[in-house]
protein-tyrosine-phosphatase (Trypanosoma cruzi), 218 residues
Amino acid sequence: MLEEPVPSDRLFQSVIAQRHKKNKKGGGDSRVILKVDNRPRFVRQMEEEDWRTALPWLEVELHKIYPDKVLGFMYLGSLRTAQTRTVYRDLNIDYILTIARDLDVRVDPGMKHLVLPVEDIPGENILLLFEKAFVFIDKARKENKGILLHCFAGLSRSVTVAAAYIMRRYKMTRDEALNMIREARPAAQPNPGFMNMLLEYEKSLRRGGGRDALLGED
């Protein structure tokens, strides 16, 4: 596994390039597979240096470790994301919101960690935890720090809380908030019960039950 970005000109001189030449000389498949985490610096480098054109023989497999940015300060990820300390350093994340039960998440000293115990089942009333989640999320926003929302897979529970926050703060409908999230995290999909609860929450916001004071612009 490659740990740090490597300029494409150095890749030509690397062991990876030597493997490509050896494969090509032997008459076999000359492609070389490079496995890396989806670290933002790697992704940015590949785009800026146009690796597909410069290194057509190199096939890059990105491991989904790093979270997806939903808002300027808010990220969505999985348990594996929450267990990867480089994520916190690279993305200036000081707040971790765990929306699940019994997940092993270890954070560095000084980081803020809140656990909201929720099962990913349709009958779980996740609405009851929204207010506590919103206060925690807003602390990160006001301190200009990144926050990671995660559950196990980062697709249902954490997405539900993120969607509810976006709905209230930006006065969006459920579907508008979910569409916004899916632009960053296409697989996001709350379970059917959570989808219904988000719809109920949308109706509550329309009736003026959102208590916007918690989410002021200050």
